[in-house]
Amino acid sequence: MTENVTIGQYFPGNSVLHHLDPRVKILSVILFVAAVFMMENMAESSLLICYTIILAGLSRIPGKFLVRGLKPLWWIAVFTLGLHFFFTEGTIIWQWRFLTLTLEGLRQGIFVTLRLVLLIFMASLLTLTTSPISLTDGLERLLSLLRPLGVPAHEIALMMTIALRFIPTLLQETDKIIKAQTSRGADFSSGNMIARLKNLVPIVVPLFVNAFRRADELAVAMEARCYRGGQGRTRMREMKIGTGDMAALLIAGGVVAGVYLLRG
Fold first, then answer.
1. What secondary structure letter does DSSP report for 96?
2. How far apart are CA 192 and CA 204, in angstroms?
């Protein structure tokens, strides 16, 4: 299961994206998210898809590894497509009994699913090309601009990074629990919806127990290393925004501007 999840994992490399300042990558992802939610037609979609493919190529991460991270989302994509296909009113293009496929539902379902895929793909690309330490430092530097408002920048950045790192860990724990329960005779594939939900109890309970145990172990390890927050901490490598970083940020801004202009 964990081999199909790329969000939260880091893929060591020496590509252009790996060397970009983490603050620039985070801001570029934020701009990309804004562009995705502005997307309304095929021209805008093509621009964002091309931009995503170019970034994937620059990352030098194997394509199979990137695409594999989208596999766990297939059932969400199918559900989203069906929800929009058959429950959106408009021009009917196909009908069978109570199922009605409309032109507007077809268009909306495709765009919503494409938005989901692009967002997950770009989030995976961010974590794959940015080490956890760099990601934490980048988030903290950006959030530090809100410190005059009382925002705890270091704590928020640390929590977000730990949450990302826990995704593959929890999925690995889930996989182990499912295999252990299956070996004891548990059946998770038969029965109606209510029966299947009840069958999830032997998975959810030990998963929560393991999650709290890991969180407690992490807290003890941080205290043993005299962790006292971000105040007074120094860094081995200071982040500096160079010419390449500014160029990458301008390109991301140009993509957003291009999507806005193509809204027509």
1. E
2. 19
